[in-house]
Amino acid sequence: MKLIVQIPCFNEEKTLPLVLTSIPKKIEGIDEIETLIIDDGSSDNTVGVAKKYGVHHIVIHPQNKGLARAFANGISEALRYDADIIVNTDADNQYYQQDIPKLIRPILEGNADIVIGDRQTSTITHFSKAKKGFQRLGSATVRFLSGTKVPDAVSGFRAYSREAALHLNIITDFSYAIETIIQAKYKRLSITSVKIRTNDPTRKSRLFKNTFQHMRQSAATLLRVYTMYQPFRVFFAIGLLLFFTGFLLAGRFIFFFLLGQGTGHVQSLILSAVLMLIGFQVVLTGLLADLMGINRKLLEENLKRVKQVELRQQKGISVPAKYSPHSYTVN
Q: What's this model's pTM, rounded to 2 decimal places?
């Protein structure tokens, strides 16, 4: 059983050693533990530090591609090196790496495909009340739309089984955190969470400038991904709202018409007809999108099979020895 711990990095030469030295060297149920970093266009000595501390595999982005792409390329590389379990952690030392055994335990026991670390944000002292409130609201929204019970939806401390990793297809540019939860629900992957510890902050987040930007981008990601997997629900809700508004305006016109004042409210009748027509068209669009979703499911299943074939063909690759990291540049 092989575990690969992947660490997306962007100018992390100062904090990366803290993460690498705190990763457990032995875990019950795991035969091999390897590390992998994804250098996302760093301008500092992140790669040099990684080599110094014996990182096994290094994926290099010549330019910054963002966290979502770094995560996706890390997953692909970990699968290429026969990872049975993949743990994703941050390079800023936010997470307590000694909790990795706890994080992967549900996968080892066969009780989950994906495990998300619960930071218990309400207990983190350096989080403001506003940030804690937004975290609760955001996680509650994700739970409602995904049908999961994940208390900390944006936690980056996660474990994926090989099967779950093969199913994942990251399409967003901002963050993989929400997208993978939505995908897990609709790809019938078992997802759970465990309580974890965190370390004191070492720097401010580079993923977003402020909480409101994070909320805006997260909301856009959530809407886009949810619509991709549940298009009929989204379009039906919008179409029904438009149709019902038009219906109310039609009722308003009929009311005044019965009072003998219909000639002064023709605009309501016209607007009613337009809204009801648009609402009906939106519902039809949702139906077509839902039918297209069937094709997408077939394509994703084929993509999974292609990944499996490619990985079987790569079985003959030689895995580099410890302290001799393999560098792999992604254009």
A: 0.79
Q: CB burial class (10 A; 0-12, 13-18, 19+) of residue 129?
A: exposed
Q: If pLDDT is split at 50, 70 and 90, which confidence band does 309 have?
A: confident
The band of 270, judged by pLDDT with boundaries at 50, 70 and 90, is confident
The H-assigned helical ranges of 123-265 are 129-146, 162-167, 176-186, 211-229, 231-258
SS (H, E, C) 34-82: EEEEEEECCCCCHHHHHHHCCCCEEEEECCCCCHHHHHHHHHHHHHHCC
Q: How far apart are CA 232 and CA 244, in angstroms?
A: 17
Rounded to an integer, what distance in angstroms lies between the CA atom of residue 69 and that of residue 8?
10
Task: Write down the pLDDT at residue 322.
Answer: 42
CA angle 194, 198, 199 (to 5 degrees): 165
CA distance 233 to 230: 6
Residue with structure tokens 């039918």? 291
- Residue 69 near residue 170 (C-beta atoms within 8 A): yes
Query: What confidence tens digit (pLDDT) does each residue in 181-207 have?
Result: 888 888 889 999 999 998 887 666 666
- 270: helix, strand or coil: helix
Q: H-helix or E-strand containing 107?
A: helix 100-108
